[in-house]
Batch of 2 targets.
Target 1
Amino acid sequence: VQRCRIVAAAEVEQSYIMIKPDGVQRGLVGEIISRFEKKGFLLKGLKLFQCSKDLAQEHYKDLKDKPFFPTLIDYITSGPVVCMIQIFVILSCKAWEGVGVVASARKLIGATNPLQAEPGTIRGDLAVQTGRNVVHGSDSPDNGKREIALWFKEGELCEWESVQTPWLIE
Ligand code: GDP
Ligand code: MG
C-alpha cells in the first residue's frame, strides 16, 4: 500500500514551522512538535537540517535592513534546525477550509518577544529572549508558500490521512 506520495501544488493553506537551533540544542524538539500534534494540525513535511547563510538570508530577506539582521543570520545558521510543514486536514467543509493554519500556528507560538508572549504559548512557556525564541512560524499564507518552497524540495512532502480527523471535525 502506498501511504505517501508527492503532493502537487495544493491550494490548502500551509504554514512553515521551524524549530530554531536553540530549540534543538535545548532538547525541545519533541515538546514543540507535540504542541502542534496535540492541536490537531497535520504534519506534511519534517526534517533536521543545517541551513546555509544564503538560505537564512533569503528566508529573512524582509528584515535585511534591521540592525539585528547579522546576528539573526548567525543564530539561525548556528546549528541544525527542524523544518516542518503544518496544515489543517483538508475537508470538503468550506468553513473548516477557511480556518487559517497560519494564524492559528502564530497563536500557539506566541509573541516575538518571549517576555511578552502569553503563558501557554511555546515562546511564553519555553523562552526568555527575542534573539533566542526557539521557533518560527509563517506570518501569512503567501509567506507560508514562499518559505515551504525555500526549505523543502519536491519529494520531501507527504500527503496522508490521519485517523484523528473524525475526532477533530464534526
Ligand atoms: P517573528 O515572526 O515573531 O519570528 O518575528 P519577526 O519576523 O519580526 O523577526 C524574525 C526573528 O528575528 C524573530 O523571531 C527573532 O528571532 C529575531 N528578532 C526580531 N527582532 C529582534 C530584535 O530586536 N533583536 C534580536 N536579536 N532578534 C530579533
Ligand atoms: Mg516573522
Note: The first helix runs from residue 21 to 25.
Target 2
Amino acid sequence: MKLNRRKVLMGGLAMAGMPRFAKAKDDGFLELAAFETQMQLVEGEYPKTAVWGFNGSVPGPLLGGVQGERMRVRLRNELTENTAVHWHGMRVKNAMDGVPGMTMQAVPPQGSFDYEISLRDAGTYWYHSHNRSLKQVSKGLYGIVVARESSPLDVDHDLVVVLDDWRLSPDAQITDDFGNMHDLSHAGRLGNYIHAVVDPLPTHFAANQRVRLRFVNTATDRIMPLALQGVEGWIVARDGMPLARPEAMDQITLGPAERVDAIVDVTAEAGGEVLLAFREGDQGYVLAETPVLAGARARRAPVEALPPNPITNITSVADARAVPMVMEGGAMGGLRGATFKGENMDMRALVQEGQVWAVNGVAGLPDAPLFEASLEETVVLNMQNDTAFPHAMHMHGTHFQEVLPDGSFGPHKDTVLMMRGEQRAFAFVADNPGKWLIHCHMLSHQTAGMKTWFKVS
Ligand code: C2O
Ligand code: CU
C-alpha cells in the first residue's frame, strides 16, 4: 500500500497546550471502556480504520493529575475477548499491575475491574492492554498517563506526542495477521504507517516559546528514531524519571514502550515551522509540523533538572544479588532447544508451540520465578543479548539503573533497548512486594516466549 506519511497538523481550536485530563465521575471512578470503534487514522481518501480503543479513541483518554494524587479507574470490557490494563512504568501495588494470571484475572467480556493507582512519581507513563497484548495493543488499546510536578514548570506548551506504527491493508484496515511466525521470530510486527498524535494539538508556536514534549513509543515492535527541526533543547526525563542532569537533545531513539521528556525552545523564526520526523538512514518522514509565528519573548535560560522522584538511588552493588539473564532464540539465533511449560523441546516442537525466544533456556513464563528477592534487597540483572535482534527489555514494579563501566549508575529506566550481542547490567532495589514480570516489550517477542518473572517478599 502507498500511504502518504506526511501528515499536516491543521490545528483545532486549542490554543495554549496544557494536558487536559479525563475527569472522574461522581463516584470517584474514571470509566475506561474498551470497545471497537472507527477512526480516521489515515488522512485523505482513505476510509476510517476499525480500531479497538478506550472510550472510543486511540490513544485512549489522557489520565493522570498531579504527583501524589490517586486515581480510580474502572475498566469495562465491551470487547468480545478478555482484556486487562497494565500501568506501564508506574510503581503501583502488585494487585493493580494488570497482569492476567499473575496479579489479577483477565476481565471477561461485559466484566469490569477497579484499579486504584497512586501517582507516586511525576512524569510520563502509559497504560495498555496486557492480555493478548500483541493483538490488543496493535489494535489500539493504550493511552497515556501524565503525573505533573507539584509546582508547574515554566513552559508555554506541555504536549504528549504518541507514536505508533500501524500495519494497514490498502483500504487502511489493520491486517489480521497477528503472530505469524515470520514476525515472531524476526523483528516483530513492523507496520507501514508511522503516525504521531500530538495532544493537545497546537495551532502554532511563537518564536522562543518553551515547549515540553512527552514522547511515548506505543508501537508493538518498531524502534523509532526521531528528529526535530526548529527547536533546541534538552532531554529532562527518560521513562518518566527525571535525569539528574538534563542532556542536550540531538536525535531521539525510542524502543517500544520507552518515553522521553524533552523541554525545547522554539528557535525557528517567524514564518518557519517546527518539524518532527521519523528518520530512517537519510530518509525522513514528517510526522508533525507546526507553524511558527512572531513572538515577543526572548529565549529563556537553559533548563534545570526536574525535581527527583521518590525512588531509591542505587549507591552500591557490592552486596547485591546477581542474576544472569541470557536472551536467546529467534531467527539466525541458533536456539537449539528450550524448556517450555516444564518440557524440554527441540526447535521444531517449540515452533509448533509458537515459542522461539527464551530467557536462560526457558521459553514462555516459567512456573518458578527467575529469582526471589527479599524486601529491600539490591538485585543486579546481568543481561546478555545472544540473539541477532534488539530487544526492549521491560521490568514491572519498579525502575532499574544501569551499572556503568566506571562504577556509576545510569538513569532510572523501566525499559531498555538491548542491541544484538550487548551485555549490560541493571540494578534495582526490590522494594515493591509481589510477583513482577520481566519481558521483551517487542510484543511479538513477548508473545513468542521472551518473558520471565520474579518475586519480592
Ligand atoms: Cu508495558 Cu508488561 O508491559
Ligand atoms: Cu525482543
Note: The pocket of CU-O-CU linkage (ligand 1) is lined by residues 86, 88, 128, 130, 257, 394, 396, 437, 439, 441 (CB under 6 Å).
